[in-house]
Amino acid sequence: MKIILVGFGVIGKGVLKVINLKKNHLLEKYGLDLSVVAICDSSGAAINKEGLDLELALKIKEETGKIASYPEFGQNIGIIEVIESVPADIVIEVSPTNIHTGEPAKSYMLKAFETKKHVVSANKGPLALFFKEITGVAKEHGVILRYEASVGGATPIINLAKETLAGNRVKSIKGILNGTTNYILTKMEKEQLDFNTVLKEAQELGIAETNPHQDISGLDTAAKLAILANSIMGREVTINDVVLEGITRITPESLLMANKGGYAIKLIGEVTDKKLEVCPKLVPIDHPLNVKGSLNVAMFNTDLANDIVVVGTGAGDVETASAILSDILNIHQSLKK
Ligand code: HSE
């Protein structure tokens, strides 16, 4: 299968590392021969129909910051033009997210569909704003869109609910969908540190958004909740419908007091048929939603399977790429049927 990689930041690099690492395994176990024919960033692209050297691409990006510096095959070209003109099976769309406009990622996705390419995305913005339109256009063109990595990084949430729990009605989803705020609350409680000191640490760990306001205001969780509401519960909502409160008012003292009473304070996203909200909540210390550090957790209440809880890593290059790889494999297997 031929891949176009759109976006060469933390996640894009993770995708190349994982493809490199798993190349032989994918061929032997699944008969999947992956070849990356284009890599795009804001500088342009490297394009080779025979397949690019992934280690070289990572090295060039590390040294120059620009994929257009790739020897012989690097060029200054727009991303839309690459998607339109380079023959490929799948576009992996991991360009920077914009949760206010969804652009330019939305246009990249639509262009991929129009040119009959499947899309695997980790991009929250377009899906949290235009879920119905985007999935509709994919369907219209007869191509597959998968987006497991957009919510919970490596944690299998969307595909778990839609595929493994198929046949169940999911009545509610509750969870911690943002690693940065979970890290901050855990650290503030444990070490009684103030908000800004711990936020700085979270930024140094590389889990916070470029604009950490999106994490602490709850907007990042709201984007993910909107995606879950649409994809799992069939609700037609956007990020703008989420009732929202962030964690900026939480103090080390309030965390300590809650702890003495047998509770942790967590930023919880919750969706039911009627509710769509993100706010700090008291969670009993022995409750499965009380996960520590930068972990993510989702709890589904279903009609047949009752409660199901899944915990995992919500960010990171290779971790997020693991969800992307599983989506690629799923497309490969669907096309074989
Ligand atoms: N800033 C996000 C988080 C990254 O902290 O969970 C993954 O979406």
Automatic annotation (TrEMBL):
Protein name, per record: Homoserine dehydrogenase
Binding positions for NADPH per the UniProt entry: 124
Keywords: Amino-acid biosynthesis, Methionine biosynthesis, NADP, Oxidoreductase, Threonine biosynthesis
Active site residues of this protein: 224 (proton donor)
Statement: the UniProt record of this protein carries the keyword Oxidoreductase: yes
GO molecular function list: homoserine dehydrogenase activity; NADP binding
Binding site for NADP(+): 7-12
Domain of life: Archaea
Pathway, per record: Amino-acid biosynthesis; L-threonine biosynthesis; L-threonine from L-aspartate: step 3/5; Amino-acid biosynthesis; L-methionine biosynthesis via de novo pathway; L-homoserine from L-aspartate: step 3/3
Binding, L-homoserine: 209
Pfam families found in the cross-reference section: Homoserine_dh, NAD_binding_3
